[in-house]
Amino acid sequence: MSTAFPENVHGVVRLAGAGHGIHDERLNRAAFTKHLLRFLAQYA
Length: 44
Fold this sequence. Notes:
Blueprint: E1 7-9, E2 12-14, H1 21-43
Antiparallel strand pairs: 1-2
Protein backbone atom coordinates (compact mmCIF):
# COMPACT_ATOMS: atom_id res chain seq x y z
CA MET A 1 0.00 0.00 0.00
CA SER A 2 1.50 3.31 -1.06
CA THR A 3 0.83 6.44 0.97
CA ALA A 4 2.09 10.01 0.99
CA PHE A 5 3.67 9.41 4.39
CA PRO A 6 7.06 7.83 5.04
CA GLU A 7 7.15 4.24 6.21
CA ASN A 8 7.84 3.81 9.93
CA VAL A 9 9.46 0.46 10.78
CA HIS A 10 10.64 -0.17 14.33
CA GLY A 11 10.81 3.54 15.09
CA VAL A 12 12.89 4.26 11.98
CA VAL A 13 11.38 6.53 9.38
CA ARG A 14 12.55 5.64 5.89
CA LEU A 15 12.43 8.40 3.31
CA ALA A 16 12.85 7.92 -0.41
CA GLY A 17 16.20 9.28 -1.53
CA ALA A 18 17.64 9.41 1.99
CA GLY A 19 20.23 6.69 1.61
CA HIS A 20 23.70 6.48 3.03
CA GLY A 21 24.86 9.70 1.40
CA ILE A 22 25.04 11.32 4.83
CA HIS A 23 28.06 9.12 5.56
CA ASP A 24 29.85 10.55 2.53
CA GLU A 25 28.97 14.04 3.72
CA ARG A 26 30.45 13.34 7.15
CA LEU A 27 33.65 11.97 5.61
CA ASN A 28 33.95 15.03 3.37
CA ARG A 29 33.36 17.34 6.34
CA ALA A 30 36.00 15.49 8.36
CA ALA A 31 38.53 15.82 5.53
CA PHE A 32 37.71 19.52 5.09
CA THR A 33 38.14 20.12 8.84
CA LYS A 34 41.49 18.31 8.82
CA HIS A 35 42.78 20.43 5.93
CA LEU A 36 41.41 23.64 7.44
CA LEU A 37 43.09 22.99 10.78
CA ARG A 38 46.39 22.26 9.03
CA PHE A 39 46.07 25.50 7.02
CA LEU A 40 45.24 27.56 10.11
CA ALA A 41 48.11 26.05 12.07
CA GLN A 42 50.50 27.06 9.31
CA TYR A 43 49.20 30.53 8.39
CA ALA A 44 47.24 31.86 11.35
